[in-house]
Amino acid sequence: MNRVLPICVLVTVLITGWLYAQPAPIRVRLFSVEQPSEVRITTPDGQTVLLDAGKGARRDTGKIFRSDGPVTIVRARGEGVRVPYPIEVSARNGALVIITELPLEDYVAAVLAGESSGFRAEESLKAMAVAARTWAVHFLNRHKTEGFDFCDTTHCQDFRVTALSTRLRKAVEATSNEVLRYDGRPIPAYYHQDCGGITEPRAPYLGQLRDSFCVSRGPSKWSAELTSSDLRSALGLTEIYGIEVVERTGSGRAQRLRITGSGSRMIDAEAFRLAIGRTLGWNKIRSDLYELRRSGDHFIFEGVGAGHGIGLCQTGAAVMGERGYTYKEILAYYYPNTTLAP
Ligand SMILES: [Zn+2]
Ligand SMILES: [Zn+2]
Questions:
Q1: What whole-number distance in Å separates Cα of residue 61 and Cα of residue 55?
Q2: pLDDT number for residue 266
């Protein structure tokens, strides 16, 4: 009887099973804002390749380069960036699409580098690791139609592959594979810089919370004076005479604004904040928790907090960690009714 055949079948089944058990790597687009059209890449064998979005792209796939890494990528401006993972480069609309592939746990560590390297307490960092991992698992495939999972900006999560450290990796390892679940499913684990004292409710696990922890750091007040010319350029309008909050959320955040110019139009407050951030800088309208008045040609915004206010408040989580709360207690506070499980 032929014994080789059953052994071959068994080996094939085992290898296939093992391959399926391996989680797919996370695909992150690098330089998503800058979108360079030309880069120089140094490969592991010391060769340098010049890539130009206008030249050398294969017509069928647009792919022009692939390496298992590590590589160093040099753009026209800025320092060389060492990427210790495989990369794949294609060209689209005159720009290079540079995608790196890395394990989920490494992605979480690089997000911690971008989003919370300022945390002093290890327990706060661990809470953020779980939040960032849960967010990633929930929003995986966010950019699927573009051929990657996440961009490297705060549109997804701020990703700093060059700022990985042993401390960040330890926070990730200490919470390895843990995600927050509600009804068995990973939640959209939103987080933000500072809730200003009250979080914005969205779901049973993203409730409205009077956050005494962040407030104990002192008020996170901000104010911004914008001229109608600032607003015109940010919103792409030709005339603006007035702007007012016409609707607020349960937590008091601006929800909808009415802008009057040659006509009257409504705009979502978050879309307004993002438009101002992109064009005039992120230090102007820092949150949606503000009052707004007109003074001559100026519109004066006076607010508290930073970010959308949903889910974990990073200032509050930092304070909790410094006061000795565990990461599980921090997560239970900001994401009530959830369970922590692989
Ligand atoms: Zn994104
Ligand atoms: Zn807070």
A1: 14
A2: 94
Residues of the chain below pLDDT 50: 1, 19, 58-60
- Residue 66's φ and ψ, nearest 5 degrees, are -150, 140
* One domain for residues 47 and 131: no
Residues 113 and 43 in one domain: no
- The per-residue pLDDT for 60 is 44
Query: Domain tally for the chain?
Result: 3
Q: How far is ligand 2, taken at its centre, from the CA of residue 309, in Å? A: 8
Q: For residue 151, how far is its CA from the centre of ligand 1 (angstroms)?
A: 4
Tally of CB atoms within 10 A around 64: 19
Structural domain span for residue 261: 221-304
Alpha carbon distance 331, 317 (integer Å): 9
- Give me ligand 2 centre to Cα 65, in Å: 45
Task: Please report the pLDDT score of residue 328 as a whole number.
Answer: 98
- pTM, two decimal places: 0.88
pLDDT at 12: 56
Question: Is residue 227 within 8 Å of 203, Cβ to Cβ?
Answer: no
pLDDT digits (tens, 9 = 90+) for 150-178: 999 989 999 999 888 999 999 999 999 99
Distance 39 CA to ligand 2 centre (A): 41
Compute, in angstroms, the gap from residue 315 CA to the centroid of ligand 1. 24
Phi, psi dihedrals of residue 240, rounded to the nearest 5°: -140, 120
Q: Are residues 187 and 233 in the same domain?
A: no
Which ligand has the minimum distance to the alpha carbon of residue 315? Answer: 2
CA of 334 from ligand 2 middle (Å) equals 9
Distance 310 CA to ligand 2 centre (A): 10
Does 71 share its domain with 117? Answer: no
